[in-house]
Design a protein that fits this description.
Protein name: SEC12-like protein 1
Order of helices and strands: EEEEEEEEEEEEEEEEEEEEEEEEEEEEHH
Keywords: Endoplasmic reticulum, Membrane, Protein transport, Repeat, Transmembrane, Transmembrane helix, Transport, WD repeat
Helix content: under 10%
Subcellular location: Endoplasmic reticulum membrane
Number of strands: 28
Pfam family, one: WD40
Distance between the termini: 126 Å
Membrane topology: Single-pass membrane protein
Length: 389
C-alpha cells in the first residue's frame, strides 16, 4: 500500500501501541519555501494492511526539515532530528477519538548539529545520537544524563544500533570503519577488523535472544565483487562468516522485533527479507520503490509487514510472504484436539477390545446345589437315630 500524500517523505517509523493498534509517524518536507515541514501520524489497519488516507495528527516544524526519527519502545515519545541541528522531542497523547503530538523541552538535544543517526536502546533507558560531524552522544533516558560525549568518535556517522540487552552500541562511518561501544560507560569495546579493500556500511544486532551476533553489510572494492552480509561474534568480536544476500549495495539494514528475520533495502528500491535461523531469503520485493534508494525500512511490531520510505515514492506498507506462524491460541487448540482424539481412541479401544475388566466371569458351581446333595451337616438329623451298642 502506497501513501499518496503531497510532500516528500524523508523518514518514517512504527509506533507500538496496546492491542496491536499500531501507528506510523512520517517526516515530510515540501519543495515550496512557503510550506512548512511536518510530522504526521497515521493509523494502521491490520486487516487491510494499509495506512489511513489522512493523518490523525500533525505538527508543523518551524525550522529545518526532518532527517531521521526515533520512537521510544513504549510508543509515547518521539524524537525528530532536523536539518537545523536540533532534535525535537514530542509526547504522543492518544485518546479514544483523538491523537496529539505535544512538543516537550529538551535542552540537551538543542543545537547538537545535524544528526544522521538517532536510536533508543531496546530497554528504552538510553538514547544514542550520531552526528554528521562524527560526534557521538549516549544519553540516559529520560534524565538525559550524559554517558558519553565523544566529538571524534567517527568521521561521519552512517548507521548505529543497540544490542538486545542494551549493553552495546555499534556504529559505522562513511569511511568504512565500524566500532562497538559499551553503552553503560561509553568505553570503546572493539573496532571491527576489515580488509583494506572493504568498507563496513550498515550494522544491526541479532534480536532473537539465542544468537549474540552483529550483522554488517560490507562493500568490496574488488572487480565484480558482490556486497555481502558479514557476521561478527559478540563474545570475541571476531568475524565468523558471511553470505551474499542482496547481491547489490544496501541502503538500510534492520531486524524484526522478535529477531527471526533480517531485512535489507537496496539503493535501487528492492527489499530482501532473510530468516536468521537458516540465513535463507524468505521474501523479495523487487522494484518496490523503482530506481530509488530506500531511506527507511522497519518491521511492524505485531504483523509480518514492513514499512519503507523513499523521497520519490513516499511511504509503503508491504506484507511479507513468509511462512505463517502458529499463534498461542492455535497451539493450545491443537493440544486440546489431540487430547480429545486420544480420549476417543481410548474409549473405542475399551469398548471394542477384550479388556481385563470385560473377561466373562469364571463358572463357579452353586453352593445351594451342593448343599442339596450333601445336606446341611449342622442341622440335618439321622433318620435312624442313634444306635445303642
Amino acid at each position: 500500500m502506497e501513501l499518496q500524500n503531497v510532500g516528500i517523505v524523508s523518514c518514517g517509523k512504527w509506533i507500538k501501541r496496546p492491542e496491536k493498534a499500531n501507528l506510523v509517524v512520517l517526516g515530510k518536507s515540501y519543495k515550496s519555501s512557503s510550506a512548512k515541514s511536518k510530522l504526521e501520524i497515521f493509523s494502521f489497519d491490520s486487516k487491510t494492511l494499509s495506512l489511513s488516507s489522512s493523518p490523525l495528527a500533525e505538527y508543523d516544524i518551524e525550522d529545518g526539515e526532518p532527517i531521521c526519527i526515533a520512537v521510544h519502545p513504549n510508543g509515547d515519545q518521539i524524537i525528530c532530528a532536523t536539518s537545523s541541528g536540533d532534535c525535537k522531542l514530542f509526547e504522543l497523547c492518544t485518546q479514544e477519538t483523538s491523537v496529539k503530538l505535544l512538543p516537550k523541552e529538551a535542552p540537551s538535544l538543542q543545537g547538537v548539529g545535524l544528526q544522521t543517526c538517532i536510536e533508543f536502546s531496546v530497554d528504552g533507558c538510553k538514547l544514542g545520537c550520531g552526528g554528521e560531524d562524527g560526534h557521538l552522544r549516549i544519553l540516559e533516558w529520560p534524565s538525559l544524563r550524559i554517558i558519553l560525549d565523544e566529538p571524534n568518535a567517527q568521521k561521519s556517522f552512517r548507521d548505529m544500533d543497540f544490542s538486545l540487552d542494551s549493553e552495546f552500541l555499534a556504529s559505522t562511518s562513511t569511511d568504512g570503519s565500524a566500532r562497538v561501544w559499551n553503552a553503560n560507560d561509553g568505553v570503546t569495546v572493539a573496532t571491527l577488523k576489515r580488509d583494506s579493500n572493504e568498507k563496513i556500511e550498515l550494522c544491526c544486532f541479532s534480536k532473537d535472544g539465542t544468537k549474540p551476533f552483529l550483522f554488517c553489510t560490507v562493500q568490496r572494492a574488488k572487480a565484480k565483487a558482490k556486497p555481502m552480509t558479514v557476521v561478527w561474534d559478540m563474545s570475541t568480536w571476531n568475524r565468523i562468516g558471511y553470505k551474499v544476500l542482496l547481491a547489490k549495495p544496501a541502503s538500510v539494514l534492520t531486524t524484526s522485533q522478535d529477531g527471526k528475520y533480517l531485512a535489507l533495502g537496496s539503493k535501487d528500491g528492492d527489499v530482501c527479507v532473510v530468516e536468521v535461523k537458516t540465513m535463507r531469503i524468505s521474501h523479495w520485493s523487487k522494484r518496490l520503490h523503482p530506481g530509488t534508494s530506500i531511506a527507511a525500512l522497519e518491521f511492524c511490531p505485531s504483523e509480518r509487514v514492513v514499512l519503507t520510505t523513499t523521497k520519490e515514492w513516499g511511504a509503503k506498507v508491504t506484507q511479507l510472504t513468509v511462512p505463517v506462524e502458529w499463534k498461542d491460541w492455535q497451539i493450545y487448540g491443537l493440544l486440546l484436539a489431540m487430547l480429545l482424539i486420544s480420549a476417543i481412541a481410548f474409549y473405542i479401544f475399551y469398548v471394542m477390545s477384550d479388556s481385563f475388566w470385560q473377561h466373562p466371569e469364571t463358572y463357579q458351581p452353586s453352593t445351594s446345589h451342593i448343599d442339596s446333595l450333601l445336606g446341611d451337616q449342622l442341622s440335618s438329623e439321622d433318620p435312624l437315630g442313634p444306635l445303642d451298642l
